[in-house]
Amino acid sequence: MSLSFEGRVVLVTGAGGGLGKEYALAFAERGASVVVNDLGVDTKGGGKSSAAADKVVEEIRAKGGKAVANYDSVEDGEKLIQTALDEFGRIGKLQCFFCINIYFSFILLSTPDLIHRVHLRGSFLVTRAAWNHMKKQKFGRIIMTASAAGIYGNFGQANYSAAKLGMLGLANTLAIEGRNYNIYCNTIAPVAGSRLTETVMPPDLVASLKPEYVAPIVLWLCHEQCQENGGLFEVGAGWIGKLRWERSQGCIVRSKNEPMSPEAVRDQWEKICDFTDSTRPLNIGESLQSMVSVLSRVDGGVGANPTASAATTSSASGINPAEAVGQKLPPTTFSFNHTQSILYALGVGMSTKDSDHLRFLYEGHPDFSCLPTFGVIPSQAAMMDGGLGSVPGLNIDFTQVLHGEQYLELYKPLPTSGELTSEATVADVLDKGSGAVILLDVNTYSGKELVCYNQWSVFVVGAGGFGGKRNSDKAKVCVVYRSKQCVVSLRIQAALYRLSGDWNPLHIDPSFAAMGGFKAPILHGLCSFGFAARHVLKQYADNDPSRFKAIKVRFVKPVMPGQSLQTEMWKEGNRIHIQCKVKETDAVVLSGAYVDLQGASEASPENLTQGGGLQSELVFAEIGRRIKDVGSELVKKVNAVFGWEITKDGQNVAQWTIDLKNGCGALHKGPYSGKADVTFTVSDDDFMEVVQGKLNPQKAFFSGKLKIRGNIMLSQKLEVILKDYAKL
């Protein structure tokens, strides 16, 4: 389907010729109403004429398009936008392109000059004039036209280079500030034949660098289907390439309580400039995180030496935690009906031989339900569809990937049909020596409502040894198994479970299994997972799925089809400790496992503190009351969504969302259904120290006690709800 701009208004500056003209004609051809702005100056910035803009408008109208001319300088940005509003009633696209190039010697850089006034200040003034109109209508696309001279520098163009790189900095900030309003800003650095380039390029080269080879990317970046934001692209001659920042691993050149010397810098210069296993920070938060890591390592005794870099990587394994952690995988959608729900139940051993299984096998049953562990199925696409392979910093051999552990928590009973969307994030990467462990957090939503949360723990054989940490406070931990109180056994078969979506031939094809070193196809680990959970549900919850809260298992050894799975269980409050064995061999296949049932479990996270609750719950309760009282006022002042992850003894035990962006504001327990603007991770005790004024937030951040993801600058706005800590 072709891209249409019907009903959209486009402002193109410098549109009297060259690239600007090509953009204006292309937008008009696809239905846009175009404001053709051109001051009508010559290549030296002198003179003024309306002829250039008028000619383009005439050409557009002759082809049946809609256009109006504007002859104002970009320094009069309000006038340009007013022309669009007067003629077309709205401003739907903003395209900043400036067709002016004047050479100045370096000595004139500090003098106010036409280059800076037009390119940089003009970009700012036109954008500022359109900004509130775009925010109001919740839509806008801005394209800044920079230059290779700004990106790389060029002899004799100091002023021009500075102005063009300034436009890139402006565009990057606009991309951040505009994204919550569906305003996206990107930058292009085009090479095209024009009245300017024809004076410095051979005629045949100018002829091959046609403006029409640049216009298509501008149209795509301006279209509502395009979700690119904050990008920088070089384009010309029919070629397009994206640029990004790259940073070396660097090197720590000081020791704790020791001065830093220029000699230390000299001695480590080769390491500082070594781009092997380089990182690619995407935002200021990621940039600052490296500094926080350095402070933590120096305080921990890591001193100036050739191997102490700011981030940890391994050239042998291709694992780069600093780059991978926090990366989000593309969202996946899972559509299903009662057939998939029933197939899953059959795949984990349910049968009509047991009358109480019928509620999971017959769609006409009055209590027809979905088994709780079906919650892993919609989330597995992140693993099965190769999503991990697209994550920067995870250059791994997928033939060496093993499923290590699995955690599933339900926030409400699963539907028996519908459409679920899963959003996955790399939570952490650990170095276990013989391999690497990747923790993948997956939140699954029905619409905007959070349904369940999975944490996948995968082990990559041979990918360890990169010097990373061995443990993570983000990992859902297994527990020590207690003595058995109850044992349930059931014979299993693997062919049926694969119909739920895991089509790995390892579980069905003998020849493929032999390639992996197995004598026969092995059972899916998540099939054993489902069997064990079902045994607990039957034994301790009367097969009532609403009683199910969470399950955690560690996969130890494979199970062969035809073997019997034996589940040993021990009840402790509302936590059921489980261990699964192969009955025929007594080999443990699931260990350190448990199922939490709904209720006031003495082992549940909510009861990890004395008195049965977290101290922070009282604070969030007070915050909730404040939002109810003055929520509308807070939304106007703050306009942000804050996520909180509260930890206890190194484990995440609670999540909260403070929504001061939508409606009259809200507080709810659990992660945000969309993307929080900023997320804080802090222990329950340190949280109380901060809100009571006993711990300075900045010191907490730089000491690693308070971790921040997202727009770090928004953290300053929390003062309006955390002040008056005595009352909290």
Automatic annotation (TrEMBL):
Localization (cell): Peroxisome
InterPro entries, per database record: HotDog_dom_sf (IPR029069), MaoC-like_dom (IPR002539), MFE-2_N (IPR054357), NAD(P)-bd_dom_sf (IPR036291), Peroxisomal_Beta-Oxidation (IPR051687), Sc_DH/Rdtase_CS (IPR020904), SCP2_sterol-bd_dom (IPR003033), SCP2_sterol-bd_dom_sf (IPR036527)
PROSITE patterns on file: ADH_SHORT
Record-annotated SCP2 domain positions: 622-723
GO CC, one annotated term: peroxisome
A GO BP entry: fatty acid beta-oxidation
An annotated Gene Ontology molecular function: 3-hydroxyacyl-CoA dehydratase activity
The entry's keywords: Fatty acid metabolism, Isomerase, Lipid metabolism, Lyase, NAD, Oxidoreductase, Peroxisome
PANTHER family, per database record: DEHYDROGENASES, SHORT CHAIN, SCP2 DOMAIN-CONTAINING PROTEIN
Organism domain of life: Eukaryota
Alphabetical list of Pfam families matching this protein: adh_short, MaoC_dehydratas, MFE-2_hydrat-2_N, SCP2
Main location: other
Pathway membership, UniProt: Lipid metabolism; fatty acid beta-oxidation
Similarity comment: family membership: Belongs to the short-chain dehydrogenases/reductases (SDR) family.
Source organism per UniProt: Sphaeramia orbicularis
Phylogenetic placement of the source organism: Eukaryota, Metazoa, Chordata, Craniata, Vertebrata
Ranges for domain MaoC-like: 491-589
All copies of domain Peroxisomal multifunctional enzyme type 2-like N-terminal, residue ranges: 334-462
Protein name: Peroxisomal multifunctional enzyme type 2
